[in-house]
Amino acid sequence: MVSIQNLSVEFSAKSLFDNINYVINPRDRIALVGKNGAGKSTMLKIIAGIQSPTSGKVSMPRDITVGYLPQQMELNDTLTVKEEVRKAFAHIDDLKRKLDEATEELSSRTDYESDEYHELIERVSSLSERMAMEQSENCEAEMEKTLTGLGFLRTDFDRPTSEFSGGWRMRIELAKLLLQRPDVLLLDEPTNHLDIESIQWLEQFLTSKAGAVVLVSHDRAFIDNVTNRTIEISCGKIYDYAVNYSHFVELRKERVEQQMRAFQNQQKQIQETEDFIERFRYKATKSVQVQSRIKQLNKIERIEVDEVDNSHISLRFPPAPRSGDYPLILDNVGKAYGDHQVFDGATFTLKRGEKIAFVGKNGEGKSTLVKCIMGEIPFTGSLKIGHNVKIGYFAQNQASMLDGELTVFDTIDRVATGDIRTKIRDILGAFMFGGEASDKKVKVLSGGEKTRLAMIKLLLEPVNLLILDEPTNHLDMRTKDILKQAIRDFNGTVIVVSHDREFLDGLVEKVYEFGGGKVKECLGGIYEFLEKKKIASLSELEISKDKKPSVEKSASDTASSKKTEPAASGNKEVSRLSYAEQKEREKNLRRLKKKVEDAEAEISRLEGTVAEIEKEMAAGEFSDDLCQRHAKAQKDLENAMSLWEIASMELESFQ
Q: What's the rounded Cα separation, in Å, for the pair 608 and 141?
């Protein structure tokens, strides 16, 4: 469908792509991956026709449509949300105009036997078919479904777009793009401005309704759920795998290991050949063999090993100075803007060393509560910062607040103090800003590079309470993994505001959900939280199912009291419904009982694990590894108890 042929791109005599070839097929779901600066966004722009390659071309049939969502764009703020999104259907108006023009021309022609007349008839027929196909869909319903799926409320539809933040306006552009249903959809970091629920909706949309999709994303869970093909850009080449990202990582590791073995074997061969040449270079009896070896050496095609660890981040937060036992205590905290209550009644205590996540739809108050903690905005209720608490804050817009005219080195030099100033080059090198990269101006950096630079500023002074608001936006997956490990190793307290499920998994032990003006605590990690939400919604569904038959039955009973003969058939119908209902109820009951039994079995297993570890500890075998295993087992046991409690409550409610 779309063919990329002999594509090469050079910037300042540096090759970004070198003679690249591949094809995008109609139902491909392609993840475009590679380190920051590898050229992923450039590739999307070239396919979209926004940027031209140095050589090569992108070929596609004339009737193929391409939709492109960049990371950042200029947005129009003069219309309401609904008016702006309705632009997605402008092509229908264009079709109608073309059909009217063709029909009018047809009515005025009299050359009924000419080829031009027959071509005109075919064009009118084709346009009529396309119009009928487009109008068969309910545009208004599709528009509402898409907007609500992306997190908008119906009350938002008539609000001016100027009232929304940049993230929400990007959602408006995404809605327009999805409604246009292009044959090829190009998405550059589409999840950066979406919450978890909207990301899950987008996953469902892309897998079930979209045509071909090529996306750049650093959300591993998202691309694993959406894509079926991975194209890696590395060292100016591409490597094409017909698998999702997680499987690609395994195959890539095998490929690099094979390359490394081949490289080492080749280096050994080259060394032996060079040694032979050097040893017998001046011996006349060996001149023929020496010349032969020199020719052989010149013909060798040197093997390159793909860039895996050519640059490496060694990220470690400074040791946290000890704070009080409770760094943060909230009691009935609330925040309102005029008549709009963002949230109210937030009450919780954060213990020293805890790592928690704030999750929920955008606009429900996650970043607002962070601003309350930072003292940036007034609020109601009581919020106490504990003894000797030093806060390190990474805001969503931290990267955009950097001075674009400064160099990377000057940006850090201006905030560094004391002995740390002598180590700036080392620190920048650890964050892949070594050599000439430290002299780049901030304004030419990519989004990921700016985020890394902002993260360095956060590392320059020791803190014991880290508050990170969407820290993974624009970071590549390897950098995210390193940041995640650094937060795990950090011995202070952490609050993470994030929509990245894979990043939060195994990092936080408690989740606070923002929604409906409330802040709810959920013990366990992010996937336990999502499982509990699913259970809660299913529970509500079961309640509504239970209520519906009783209403139908009472209506049938009323009918039977008024009529004689029809009542018999009505009662038969009720009887049939009751039997089906009973079978369904028994099935659900068995499912819920099994869930409780499974939870009890898991608790029993974990209790045994804890007992075994404690037995080892009682025998005097203490080690860091043993303590870590004990802490993890205890945490897993707490989570299992929490899931058992929810399953038991659901079963009790159902019975």
A: 54
